[in-house]
Amino acid sequence: MTATSQRGVALLTILLLVVSITVVAGAMLASQKIAIRRSGVLFDQNQLSQDINAGQQLAITLIRADSMLNDTDSAQDIWAKPLPPYSLGTHSISAELRDEASRFNINNLYHNGKTDTVALEVLQRLLTQLNLAPEIAVAILDWQDADAEVYKDGGDESVVYTQTANAGTTTTLPNQPFVSIEQLQEVRGVTTEALTILRPYLTAVPYYLPININTASPALLAALIEGSSAEQLQPLIKLREQQPIASINDIWQLPPFMTLDSEQSKALTPSLAVDSSAFMALITATDSSNNDKARQRFATILISKIDAAPATESNNPANGNDNANNNEQSAKVIKVVSQRSWAFRPSF
């Protein structure tokens, strides 16, 4: 091989090495860019998660502050007022609060190992007012109660309430409390249209939740009494708009509650309250660092507000004693029950 040929081979080898190094360097640079981009996305997602946690603490603080100011929960309270977004640099946090006791808790139908007949009748009347079949209430009860028989019918639930699940058809009912209102789609008689109608009036809190007469809708209040209508509740609605109702005893002098006898009012009392034991918070975290499109993350958070001490015979509302709603009301424990993240803003 001549010297010229050797120089040509050496030059070719060097060129191949340069090309190889360039390719490797390019691949490393591309990988580094992806890693940097991924780190940036993870950082932004982590920051949005921290924003959600901050919004959660804001909601708890509002409920706690209001609880120290008064013993009622109404539309006049600070938790019910719109809050401007709280800015943190390019990030912002907003919180909206809703009183879940303004709705009927479908888990009230079955608690402490037995059916709550008063709650069942209230739900049946509510369904009737909304032009829905009252039999849906029994189907909702059977979906969650512990037995395998249709309520007051004796039929086999697995035969009557066949469900169609994503994986196929199943004849076994869960026989446990509802986790969300969306589960009603698995209940016999609850169509998509029916659920749309029911959604503003129902909630699924995992413990017994009395109806707050200071925030409940006229339709739900009317469902408390057989034969009443939303129009008959206008005196109560106007009264609570001026000033929150401070005691359950105050409503027995108002129509249509004044038509109830002592036995009826005693039976209904445990179902009512002037404050709330549960709130739903909608937290929105926004990252505006990207000028082209802001990133958002949403979360719905169920917050409980219950007595610090367990109920006793002297302060149990079921005994007709209203001490739980006066100035001697025990301190409240406020904490998060559950949290659900959303990629889009849920209906609220």
Summarize the structure.
The chain has 348 residues and is an alpha+beta fold. The protein has helices at residues 3-69, 117-129, 135-144, 157-160, 192-198, 218-222, 234-242, 262-268, and strands spanning 86-88, 91-99, 104-105, 110-111, 114-115, 163-165, 168-170, 202-203, 211-212, 272-273, 278-287, 295-307, 332-342.
Radius of gyration: 29 Å
Strand order of the largest sheet: 1-2-11-12-13
Terminus-to-terminus distance = 84 Å
Binned strand content: 15-25%
**Count of DSSP-assigned helices:** 8
Would you mind describing this structure in some detail?
The protein is α+β, with helices and mostly antiparallel strands and 348 residues long. The protein has 8 helices and 13 strands. Helix 2 crosses helix 3. The termini are far apart. The relative contact order is 0.14. About 7% of the residues have low confidence.
Topology of helices and strands:
Elements: H1 3-69, E1 86-88, E2 91-99, E3 104-105, E4 110-111, E5 114-115, H2 117-129, H3 135-144, H4 157-160, E6 163-165, E7 168-170, H5 192-198, E8 202-203, E9 211-212, H6 218-222, H7 234-242, H8 262-268, E10 272-273, E11 278-287, E12 295-307, E13 332-342
Parallel strand pairs: 3-8, 9-10
Antiparallel strand pairs: 1-2, 2-11, 4-5, 6-7, 11-12, 12-13
Helix pairs in contact: 2-3
Which structural traits does this protein have?
348 residues; 8 helices
